[in-house]
Structures are given as C-alpha cells and as structure tokens.
Amino acid sequence: MILRDVLKNIDIIDKKGNLDIEITNISSDSRLIEKNGLFFAITGYKLKGTDFIESAVKNGATAVVVEKDVDLNSLDYNDITFIKLDNIRKNLAICSCNLYDNPSKKLKIIGVTGTKGKTTSTYMIKSILEKHGYKVGLVGSIETLIGDKQLKINDRTTGESYEIQKTLDTMVKENVDIVVLEVSSQAMKLDRVVGCDFDVSLFTNLSEDHISPNEHPTMEDYFNAKLSLLKISKNCVVNLDNEYTKKIPSLLPDKNIVTFGVENKADFMAKDFEYTNHSVSFTLITKDYEKNVEVSIPGKYMAYNALGAIAICSFFDVTYEDIKNGLNHFSVFGRSEMVPNKLGLKIMIDYAHTPSSLQSILETVKPYTKGRVICTWGVGGDRDHAKRPIMGEISGRLADFTILTCDQARTEDPAKIAADIEVGLKKTNGKYKIIINRTEAIRYAIHMMNKDDILVLPGLGNDLYIEYMGVKHPYNERTVIKDIIDEMIKEKEAKK
C-alpha cells in the first residue's frame, strides 16, 4: 500500500520526504520492522522513540512517524520519509487499520474487559459459539487461536494496535466468523483498539487492581478506561452484582444493554448451585426457560463468568444445547485446568501465584474433595519476598499436604525461596515436604494420591518453560504428568 493511503483520514502536522512510497509493514518496535516498513517512534515511560530510528532504518524502514515536539530538520537520514503527527498512538491504530483494510468490519467482534474473569469468559464464549457452528478466533492474554489452531503464544492481555489488526486480517483470510478479543484497561488508555468495530462487549466486574502512577492513578480512572470499551460497542453485557458495573445501565442509557447476575434481578440469572472439586452446576434462568448447565471448572465465580458468556452469545442465536455443551466441554490453558490422564486422577494446573489467588483456588476445591488436597508449588524468584511466608501459611492451613518445589526461580536459589515459604508453613499444623526438582515433586505427589484426592499445581499455569539460574528451559507440566503416569502404568503391568 502507498504511504499516502496508509495515512488516510489523518491530519499531518509536518512532513519531509515522499508520501508515494510503498509500505508493507508497520510497528512501534524497531526490531520488528522489515523492508518497506513504517516505524512509529513513540516515547514510552523510560525510552525515547527517536533513539530507535537508526535501528528501524537498518531493518528496512523507509518512513518514520515522530511525535509533534520533534524537529524534522534534526533528523538526517537519506531517502527516509518523516511524518509528524499528534495523538501518535491513536494514529498508529488508524494507520494499522488502513494498512490491513479495516479487517474488523469484515468480522463480528466481541470485546471482553473487567478485572477478573476475562480470560475464562473468552474461552467460554468461544466454546459456546463453536458448538453452534461458528468459526471462532480468540485473541487473549494466553494465546491467539483460530478454532484449535494456535497462531501464537501471547505475553500480555492486548497487543499493540498493529498486532491486533494484522491478526484480524489473518482471521479474515481464514474465513473466521466471530473474533473474541480480550481488552485490557491499558489497551483502551493507549488506544490499541481504535478502529476496531465491536458488535458487543462484556464487562465482567471491577475490583481494585492496576492502581499506580504508570497505570491508573485512581479507581475512577480505571473504571472509565474499561467503560470506554462499552461506549464504542454496538451492544453491551454487564454484571449487575458488582458495585461498579451495576451503574453502567444508568451511565449509558442509550446503549442496548443485557444484564446478568445472581443477587440482583437481571436478564440472565443463576440459582440452585451444586459444586464439586472440578465443576459447578446451576439452574440457568432466562426469559424463555429455566434449565440446568454444568461448567467444567469449579467455583461460584465460574457461574458469573458463564452467565456473562451466555449473555454475550445470546446476540448470536445460540440454543440451550449450544450453551450446555459449550460450558461442559471447555478448558482454559493453565487456569483451573483439569489434566486428563489414564489413571483418572484429579490433577489441576492453575496460574495462582499470589496469596489471594492461591487461597481462592484451595478454598474452591477443598470443601468438595472427599480425600486430600495435595498442593505442589513454589514462588517466583526476583519478586516480592513478603508474600512467601503468607502463601506458606495459606497452603499449610488449607491443603492437607504441601510439597514445596521450584517455580520460576529466575536468578534466585529455589532452596532459599522454599525456606522463605517454610516460615509461614511452620505457623500451621499442615504437613509438608520440600522437593526442589519440580518433576520429582510432581512424581512424589502423584504416587501418594488416592482416587478421592486432588492434586493442585499452582504457579506455572500456561508457562511452557521453567526459569532456573537465569536460563529458561522448556517445561510442560502436562507432558510431565503424562510421562509419570505412563511410568506408573508400566511398572504396575510389569509386576503382574
């Protein structure tokens, strides 16, 4: 595409060079620029964008966008076009839309925001819609998917605008019908989804998080950032049981808003909860029926995620059978993920790595486990040391047996980390053992399990590596579990 066309609908403050050159790629990361690239030199919290122009040019940039306070005459690069723009992040998003021919207008786009439940809700929505027969793409904090095909592993909730538009363009070419997009408050604040045409958006809930000078100075700012997603959506789904989101219908009186909740009367409600250590079931109440659904991940909070997902899917003519089958046959990689195995043991992988998340997952499974709760975990290195004994005390109090092991130790000695955790464990009557090697710790845990026990593996979640002494090593807990159980089966058969 010609640069002039990439800049369509953008007010140019100043320019130097030729606008009639070919542009094939766009980025604000100089390392990602390729031949005929357009580089946006954006200044971040610590680094100046102009410091990376030379790198971008070496990698193939033929045009560079700079911020309004940059003097174009100070930039001396032969045959490079420079453009000065205001609102550079917003204009990066607009240029990205232009370069990829506005792919969101060729798709149905669902946005999902909120403090908690975003990731799980996106997978629920995807599963229900696929049961109806739609081809669904997912762009989330863990991965990007088209159906079962993983396009990439993601390292943040919402990518930069050019990454989003490139992904949506790929989904158009793959004949995707609907895309479910996880949207963070930072994505809204930094204009990453400008130009995305949202058909419907979900606001799961809001609680105190991401409050800092570099993120959101106040809860009001945090709420308004997330609310801005709903303002640009054609339709909205909101939680009426949350103190913040319940205000949205009155704040957006002209929007088509569908509601969900348990405590307050809403369009989609739930009652008669039944729990196990690996699922939750409830009666779904809609204007048309009251019928039972089961969610294949435990916890009452999963019912809220399910209600939001069901409300979203109501815009796409799904049936009760689609809902029932979609919720009963889905999993989230690394989030309360039950690992199928040949021995039928209950083994759960979860991302819990903070005191609150560890407590939440253990309190979820413990009341509904007939046998023991065995918890095998560690704490990431080079992070907050104060939380280690706190988490140790939580595990000692809630788990029947704790095995302390290596997590993402990074540059720290995992034995030292385990010793810090042990301080908290010793304050309880909880039984525990320290086995630093994670594979050996998991092996020990599985060997001690009975059929009524559950093994919880918090920490790594969706990580497919383990970092030790500053080096990342490939590591997939699912493979480790499979190999251990295969060994056990072979040993058992050999004894016959």
Nutshell version of this structure?
The chain is built from 15 helices and 24 strands. It is α/β, with parallel strands linked by helices and about 500 residues long.
Describe the structure.
This protein is α/β, with parallel strands linked by helices. The protein folds into three domains: 3-99, Udp-n-acetylmuramoylalanyl-d-glutamate--2,6- Diaminopimelate Ligase, Chain: A, domain 1 (3-Layer(aba) Sandwich), CATH 3.40.1390.10; 103-328, UDP-N-acetylmuramoyl-L-alanine:D-glutamate ligase (3-Layer(aba) Sandwich), CATH 3.40.1190; 337-495, Protein-Tyrosine Phosphatase, Chain A (Alpha-Beta Complex), CATH 3.90.190.20. It contains 15 helices and 24 strands. An eleven-stranded mixed β-sheet has the order 9-8-7-10-6-11-12-13-14-15-16, sandwiched between helices. Helix 11 (355-365) runs parallel beside helix 12 (387-398) and helix 12 packs across helix 13. The radius of gyration is 25 Å and the shape is globular.
Annotation keywords:
15 helices, alpha/beta, UDP-N-acetylmuramoyl-L-alanine:D-glutamate ligase, 32% helix, Udp-n-acetylmuramoylalanyl-d-glutamate--2,6- Diaminopimelate Ligase, Chain: A, domain 1, 3 domains, 496 residues, six-stranded mixed beta sheet, Protein-Tyrosine Phosphatase, Chain A
